[in-house]
């Protein structure tokens, strides 16, 4: 323990202990905390090898509790010391200064320990006398707020941001929350009734519990709600009552002041949890109890807790974040720690979370943002790097016991890759700890790797990479399996050949994404995917029965009446004037197809046949992700792969033409074991639905794969593909992709496309629809909006007046005179 305490005052009581208070027995820890809060100003402890600081203000007594950084230990640790100055007046200094040892053999500001730029943690100035101007209400508020701030802290140097979560009367597996079933946290405070709130781990239940206790106190008349953690309680009256009394005493209150109880860390698989809740209800029958129910499985459970504990609880569910909630979080985070332009950051966070198929929680948002701090890129080019950075955070920031050697992250990746190979080959994804330890211990021994496998398991379990299901464990999210399998493929050619052969990779395109993202030059994967995609499309072609050059769209014309043309031009002006829609509308529109239940399904995909449409569609996804990550493969292979992807899009488009009659009549259809369903209003009669489905197909096909394929770095490849393709459905879908994602030079390609297609063709009509849609709803810069505006007016001039290649002068005339006139 390495402190330098300069004390020029005799008005302080300071406790210095080698071991942290938390390592004492339960009763001793509680008693000592009570004494500290009443009689001490400063508590200094050692033993932890990660900095810990707690600024506690308890009723009329206020103290600081801090742990020391390590100084005399392994040189692999971050070494240093802290300085606490005590002034001659009646107050502690406002800060603790940290110093850390560097590889240059000198001490510098301890930014690792403090999480600040100057190595200093600052506090509110604390007056150690009782003659202060702060009221009891202020002190309790400060205490409850500090507890909330502690709960919000996940990583060092992370801004502590609070946004109101979404509570719902329905589980997320039943769909997006609606206004009718949403409940706001303050509703629970304003109308307190015993409630059980369910959510999977790491959804923010502890933060919500602390927030409810804080807000209840701020509500007038102020109510004292106590926070209890089930894990710190024993299933007997004495333990529960003592914990309640201790929490009340921290703020100078008694049992008579108790108005509510928030019970955290309740688990339906823990027998003690049920007993504790039942006893808590018996002891406090007149007090509202709010239970934070952590679901230990990956499925929302609907067990009636009222029957278990013999009390009445209102069931609620803590939901993931909508895009507008993510915007609120990113906005606050960006103010304190700037990452990048707001819309770009939001798009990146949403894209990474949704592609990894994880829940939209605050923790996952913070983790993605932390992984993006070093070199934020608007385009989700390489998620392999994202996961590598997340692992770095887990292995280098989270606490590892001081008596253990911190494991090397690359050793862990290497060993876990071997273990995930076992899972993939056996197709068994549940395992015991004993099997995990035995398999990896044997592997590490054979490879002469020094790795504490038990510690590795503990880290993975405590960070919720592993979860427990009954008496076995599994990866909580399948993307971790895919990531470690990709690492194994990189190190072991035999296993790489196994995954790449017989289209096994089509079951999990994520493996190809992570594999190609390791070094971005996996020509072996690219060549195999090209061959498999060619073969798969040929098989579908034979099943489809349509010639490759068959195309319905040249026969489809855009021939509106003069009145419709006038209305179209009016809509252009109105679209321009209403382009600055509120972010709320844009966010909700962007979320229209989001399925919050999807992250609850973490099963590894199974495919009945490699020749099925579903298999080919997954292969297309793998091909898109591989191409996006393959910056350094042979340019010829990149061109061939993009050609095959676009050719596959054309084949999928033809298949959708075949099922239009069934879709228009019944609203659903099946081809080669793959189902398609209409969503939205396509018209009131079959003929109208037939036409509307037909014109929507190209945009749908591109939308299915655009996020897999696109990155800003692909602009040269896409531009060359556009220029080299003949006019037809393939070229049109490339144009739609450019309009949606706007790579460098996209407007020049669209401008050229408009000039070279017929004024009454379906193609120009579809481009006009897509541009209008983008102008209304996309998150774009003023420059991009100007480009879209210009292209919309260009189509209007061409279609209405028959000008083959409208010039800028004609377009400007239309903008300045014709369109405003039609508004009158």
Model description:
By secondary structure, the chain is an alpha/beta fold. A hairpin with a 2-residue loop joins strand 19 and strand 20. Helix 20 (562-577) packs across helix 30. The protein is globular. Mean pLDDT is 80; it is low at 1-9, 49-61, 125-132, 298-302, 567-581 and 816-824.
Keyphrases for this structure?
5-stranded mixed beta sheet; Rossmann fold; single chain; 30 helices; disordered C terminus; 7-stranded mixed beta sheet; alpha/beta; 824 residues
Overall form: globular
DSSP strand content? 5-15%
- Give the uncertain stretches in residue-range form: 1-9, 49-61, 125-132, 298-302, 567-581, 816-824
Strand arrangement within the widest β-sheet reads 11-10-16-12-15-14-13
**Strand count, sense and closure of the main sheet?**
7 strands, mixed
The number of E-state strands comes to: 20
Radius of gyration: 31 Å
SS class:
alpha/beta
Mean pLDDT: 80
How many separate helices? 30
State the end-to-end CA separation: 80 Å
Helix content: 40-55%
